[in-house]
C-alpha cells in the first residue's frame, strides 16, 4: 500500500498455479476498508487479461439478470463484522495453468484522536509459507511518528515487523515465518486471524496547514492544534422506549457515566430521555461541577456565548410511539435545531434503521455512527464522544480566491485530533492568483488563518493525478451524502452527477457496479458496493456495509500478500484462494521493489 498526502492506494496481486491434471475453480476473497472505493480489478489467465468494467448500477443489473437467466451465479459483496466488506469472485483454472488476480482500491484516510490508521486484516486459515506485506508512506509535511499495532503485532509476530522512518517517508514490512504465524494474540494452529494497523501522524504548524497541487487541482489539509479548547454545551438525548430495554439501555447508562466523568468544569450539559413522553433531568443546561455530575449520574441510573453546542442522540432508530412517521420526525428535528448546532446520531444495535439516522444527522450538520450491540458497546459510545469532546473552532469557513469546483467549505465545528480536508480546482491553473484563507471562531473571538507567503507545494510529477483523484473521491462522497437528504428532481440531479464522476474515475460506489469479465463460458460476477446499514444480499438487492485490506486464503497452499503502490507491474503474490476439492500448489514468486513517491 502506498500512502501519499493521506490518500492510500492499495494494489493486491495474487497468483495461483493449478498443478492438478484437471480444471479447478478458485475463489478469490478480499476485504477492504469501508470508506474505500474499488477502482480496478483484473485477472491474467493463460496470457489473456480480463479487466473488470465499472458501469452504472442499472446496466450492471441488466447484465446480472441475463447471467441469471442462463443459470449462472453472481458475485457477492457482503458485510463482515463492523468495518469489513468482502469481495468474492471465482474462476476456473485449467490443468497446469495459472491465474493472477489484481485488485486496486483507494481511500482518503481520516484523522481521529490525532492519528491516521491503515488497517490490514489477514485470515489465511492456516500458516502459509510465503506471506508478505509492504507499506510505504510519503508525506511532504514530514512524519511525526509511526507505530504498528493490532493483534498481528503481538508476541512472536512482532519480530516479523520491520519499521523504517526517515523524515518524510516511512516503510513497514511484515514478513512472518510459518512458525511465527502461530504465535500471536489472534493466532492459532490455523494461522493468523487479526489486524495489522499502521498508525502515524504528520508534522503540523498552527497556521494555514498543508496545501498540495498538481495538474490544476489542489488539496488542503487543515488541522491546527495550539488553540484553546472551547467550553461546550452538550445535550444527551436518550431513547428509553421498549425497543431499547435490556442490554442496550444498560450499556448506554454505563457509557454516559464514563462520559460525564470526562466533562470539564466549564462545560455545560443536559440530559433528556424519551419514549412516548419526554423527561428532563433539568430544564436548562447546567455547569459540569461535581454536584451536578453526581446528580446526573443518579438520573442515568434511575446556548451560551463563546462555547460550542452539540446534540447527541442515542437510539435504535425504531419509533414505537408518539410521532412514528420517519419523514415527520426528520422535519420536526430540522425545524427545532434550525441550523444552530450539529446533531450526532448514535444508532444502537445490528437492526438499527441507519438510513433514517444518517439522513437526519446530515440534515443537521452532523454524522451518524453505528454502535454495535456487543460487550464493548459502552466503549464504542465513549470512543465516539472522545472524538467530539474538545472543540477548538466553530463556524469554520474555508475560502479559496482563484479556486473553483470546491468540495465542502463550511464546517460547524473543528475538534482536537481531527482534520478538515478540502479539494478543488485552481482557476486556469494559475497559482499566482490562488489565495487560500480560513475564517473561524475560537472561544468568543474571530480568527483568520492566512499566510500570503505560503507556498502551495507541487507533487513534482506532471502525470501525477493523485490530487485530482482526492478531489473526485471527496466530491463523490459528499454528493452521496447530499443525495441522501434530497428528493425529487434535485435528488436525481445530484445522483446523476455522483454517478458520472464515479464512472469517469472508475469508482465502485453505491451508484455503480463492477462487472467482472471472465473467459467465455464462465459465470458473470457483479461487484456492488452497498450503503452503510444495508443487509448483505446477492445482487440486485443491497449488499452489506463497506470496509480493510483482508485476504482469506484456504488451507494447504503457500500464500503471499503484497500491498503495494500505484503504477506497479503485477506483483507476483499468492492470494486468498479457496478450492472446492483438492488443494492447488502455488508457484513461489518474487516481489517488485516499491518505488518512492
TrEMBL record:
Residues 518-548 are annotated as: Disordered. It comes from the Eukaryota. Gene3D superfamilies: von Willebrand factor, type A domain. Residues 233-388 form the VWFA domain. Residues 525-535 have a biased composition (Basic and acidic residues). It holds the Pfam family VWA. Residues 1-107 form the VIT domain. This is Inter-alpha-trypsin inhibitor heavy chain 3. It comes from Oreochromis niloticus.
Amino acid at each position: 500500500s502506498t500512502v501519499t498526502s493521506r490518500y492510500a492506494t492499495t494494489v493486491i496481486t495474487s497468483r495461483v498455479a493449478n498443478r492438478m491434471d484437471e480444471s479447478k475453480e478458485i475463489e478469490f476473497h478480499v476485504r477492504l476498508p469501508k470508506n474505500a472505493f474499488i477502482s480496478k480489478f483484473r485477472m491474467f489467465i493463460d496470457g489473456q487479461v480480463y479487466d473488470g468494467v465499472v458501469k452504472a448500477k442499472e446496466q450492471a443489473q441488466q447484465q446480472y439478470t441475463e447471467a441469471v437467466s442462463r443459470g449462472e451465479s453472481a458475485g457477492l459483496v457482503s458485510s463482515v463484522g463492523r468495518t469489513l466488506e468482502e469481495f468474492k469472485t471465482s474462476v476456473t483454472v485449467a490443468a497446469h495453468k495459472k491465474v493472477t488476480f489484481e485488485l486496486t482500491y483507494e481511500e482518503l484516510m481520516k484523522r481521529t484522536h490525532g492519528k491516521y490508521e491503515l488497517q490490514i486484516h489477514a485470515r489465511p486459515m492456516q500458516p502459509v509459507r510465503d506471506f508478505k506485506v509492504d507499506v510505504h508512506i510519503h508525506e511532504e509535511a514530514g512524519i511525526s511518528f509511526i507505530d504498528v499495532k493490532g493483534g498481528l503485532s503481538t508476541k512472536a509476530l512482532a519480530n516479523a515487523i520491520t519499521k523504517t522512518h526517515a523524515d518524510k517517508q516511512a516503510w513497514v514490512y511484515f514478513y512472518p515465518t510459518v512458525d511465527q504465524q502461530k504465535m500471536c494474540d489472534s493466532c492459532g494452529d490455523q494461522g493468523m486471524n487479526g489486524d495489522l494497523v499502521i498508525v502515524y501522524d504528520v508534522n503540523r504548524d498552527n497556521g494555514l496547514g498543508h496545501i498540495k497541487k498538481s495538474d490544476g487541482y489542489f488539496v488542503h489539509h487543515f488541522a491546527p492544534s495550539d488553540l484553546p479548547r472551547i467550553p461546550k454545551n452538550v445535550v444527551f438525548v436518550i431513547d428509553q422506549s421498549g425497543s431499547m430495554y435490556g442490554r442496550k439501555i444498560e450499556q448506554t447508562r454505563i457509557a454516559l457515566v464514563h462520559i460525564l466523568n470526562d466533562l470539564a468544569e466549564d462545560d455545560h450539559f443536559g440530559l433528556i430521555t424519551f419514549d412516548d413522553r419526554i423527561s428532563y433531568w433539568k430544564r436548562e443546561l447546567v455547569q459540569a461541577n461535581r454536584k451536578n455530575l453526581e446528580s446526573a449520574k443518579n438520573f442515568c441510573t434511575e446556548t451560551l456565548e463563546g462555547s460550542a453546542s452539540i446534540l447527541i442522540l442515542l437510539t435504535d432508530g425504531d419509533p414505537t410511539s408518539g410521532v412514528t412517521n420517519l419523514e415527520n420526525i426528520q422535519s420536526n428535528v430540522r425545524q427545532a435545531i434550525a441550523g444552530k448546532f450539529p446533531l450526532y446520531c448514535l444508532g444502537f444495535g445490528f437492526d438499527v434503521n441507519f438510513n433514517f439516522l444518517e439522513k437526519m444527522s446530515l440534515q443537521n450538520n452532523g454524522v451518524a455512527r453505528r454502535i454495535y450491540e456487543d460487550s464493548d458497546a459502552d466503549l464504542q459510545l465513549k470512543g465516539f464522544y472522545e472524538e467530539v469532546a474538545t472543540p477548538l473552532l466553530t463556524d469554520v469557513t474555508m475560502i479559496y480566491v482563484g479556486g473553483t469546483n470546491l468540495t465542502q467549505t463550511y464546517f460547524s465545528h473543528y475538534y482536537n485530533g481531527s482534520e478538515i480536508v478540502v479539494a478543488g480546482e485552481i482557476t486556469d491553473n494559475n497559482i499566482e492568483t490562488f489565495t487560500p484563507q480560513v475564517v473561524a471562531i475560537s472561544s468568543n473571538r474571530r480568527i483568520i488563518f492566512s499566510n500570503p507567503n505560503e507556498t502551495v507545494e507541487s507533487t513534482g510529477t506532471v502525470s501525477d493525478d493523485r490530487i485530482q483523484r482526492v478531489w473526485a473521491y471527496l466530491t463523490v462522497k459528499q454528493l452521496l451524502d447530499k443525495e441522501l437528504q434530497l428528493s425529487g428532481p434535485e435528488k436525481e440531479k445530484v445522483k446523476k452527477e455522483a454517478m458520472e464522476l464515479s464512472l469517469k474515475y472508475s469508482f465502485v460506489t453505491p451508484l455503480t457496479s463492477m462487472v467482472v469479465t471472465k473467459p467465455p463460458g464462465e459465470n458473470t460476477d457483479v461487484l456492488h458496493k452497498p450503503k452503510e446499514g444495508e443487509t448483505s444480499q446477492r445482487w440486485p438487492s443491497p449488499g452489506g456495509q463497506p470496509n480493510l485490506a483482508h485476504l482469506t486464503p484456504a488451507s494447504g497452499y503457500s500464500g503471499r500478500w503484497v500491498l503495494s503502490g500505484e503504477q506497479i507491474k503485477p506483483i507476483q503474490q499468492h492470494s486468498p484462494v479457496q478450492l472446492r476439492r483438492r488443494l492447488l500448489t502455488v508457484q513461489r514468486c518474487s516481489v517488485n521493489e516499491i518505488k518512492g513517491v
